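Q: What would this chain look like folded?
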Amino acid sequence: MESKKHQDSSMHYVNELCKKFTKIESMHITRIQNEFTDALVTFSSLIQHHDKSYIEPIEVEIRGPYAYCFHVDEETDSMPQFHGIKRFIEIRKYPESATTGQKRALRILANHFFLNGKVLYRRTMDFGLSRCVDIAEATRL
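A: My prediction, written as structure tokens:
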């Protein structure tokens, strides 16, 4: 019951605040895309000020797009190392010469990858995605 009262008072405050603006837009952002906001909330909760109505300004510098190359394997047969995994995810067929063990390994490896259109991503331990690129694209990036 207490949280319902808190929600009602918060909504009332938001509605009153909205009257002070000429235009307001809102959009839903998934939790995974909201990491920056979560970091700001955590950071601001660490700042203590004797005047509770005072809001400490936080300067944020937004930089251009970035890229990290975390691992680049040599392409021995002109195909990137992840080519076989990408092909398996696309068509769900094993290479003709694959042994039972290799098929099992390919299935297990494929669980760690995500294909979005033609772009292959590897899932990271923190539930992020790393884009798989060939050596030419890695050099360009």
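DSSP finds five helices and three strands in the chain.
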